[in-house]
Amino acid sequence: MPFKSGLELTELQNMNTPEDDNVSNDSNELIEVDSNRISSKFIADRESRRSLTNSHLEKKKCDDYSPGTTSVGMSIFNLSNAIMGSGILGLAFALANTGIVLFVLLLISVTLLSVYSINLLLKCSQETGCMVYEKLGKEVFGTPGQLLVFGSTTLQNTGAMLSYLFIVKNELPIVVKFLVGQENSEEWYLDGRFLVVIVTILIIFPLCLLKNLGYLGYTSGFSLCCMFFFLVVVIYNKFKIECPFLHTNGTLDSATEKCKPEYYTFNSKTVYALPTLAFAFVCHPSVLPIYSELRDRSQKKMQLVSHISFFAMFVMYLLTAVFGYLTFFSKVQSELLHTYEDKKDILILTVRLAVIVAVILTVPVLFFTVRSSLFEMARKTKYNLLQHLVVTIVLLIIINLLVIFIPSIKDIFAVVGGRLPGIRSIVFLNKHSSCHLRLGELRSPTG
């Protein structure tokens, strides 16, 4: 019996051999397929890791990481203050020459284009790891790109600082003369040139000595409060001041007709509306310095900062333009404050002073960008108190001398391109777009 059972077992094994061979072959084929899949997946993962490593190493060529210390709120204040400037005073005049509907469409378009260009800038910064404009230009376009970026951002910020100090030079004496009761006096201490120097020494210079841009968040917040007060007064005067055409020669019907808002307007001055709007949103040179000092910074967090800032400024610009226009209609002047006829109105004088304070507190934010660009070009990126102090003093002296000896703000605009601020915004947009495209070429396998 055992022998027979052994034969039966052997026969059964022989009978199952072909099926076992087939199963074995199928298993081998499955193992080979799985092995190929695992091998190809491993190779793909290895190549992906190698690509990420190479990308990381490429970023490290530009990245000198330093942790930021500024909160999101302070960063919003700084960026909003960089956006806000003297351009808000001319928006009502731009609306009067375009009409309400066309103005709103232009304002929305410029806002979206500005936000898009900043998103491109942040994308370029993320791809290269660069937190400084000059480094970003050099990483993407080499030394010519670095020099071009340095020249354009420095010229833009210097021109803006000069224009703000010119506002102080021209407007502050009016307020001071009224406060001291010497409106017709020509005393030396009421001269705008002297007052600019005093403001620089007492306010601008101490703020420019601060080590980090984040500390200016408090002064930027106060500057925005001054401009918000300006907006409130503009809205208040809309309901206080009657239509300016009611007291002019002519019939009541014609005056009433002129006091109706225009929704579409085309005239010889309509073409100046777009540059005015574009100038009101130029803040790009300050974006990377603010980004570099953002605490736990990331692209999404900085985009949140920019989106909130631009939305807030969009609302403020829109309300200022609409209510300023609805107050004076076609009689609104190129600078809204000059349209208010009562020069002795305490409220208007207070608003004028608030605007002066706002532009004064904007100067240090722009100054930080210029000084950091100079340090970057000189490769002096580590903080040194003596260098910090000397460069700050020299730059402020140069800026004050230009404000004192240049007779008109038009001469500054002729040099820095202030008459064509829209072109500057388009240049910034093209620069960020070309940077993004260039990075795409450098990262592509065929590039």
From TrEMBL:
It comes from the Eukaryota. GO terms for cellular component: plasma membrane. The keyword Membrane applies. The keyword Transmembrane applies. GO terms for molecular function: L-glutamine transmembrane transporter activity. It is found in: Membrane. It is a multi-pass membrane protein. The chain crosses the membrane at residues 76-94, 100-122, 147-168, 188-208, 215-236, 271-292, 304-326, 346-368, 389-409. Coiled coil: none annotated. InterPro entries: AA_transpt_TM. Keywords: Membrane, Transmembrane, Transmembrane helix, Transport. Residues 69-418 form the Amino acid transporter transmembrane domain. This is Sodium-coupled neutral amino acid transporter 1. It comes from Pelobates cultripes.
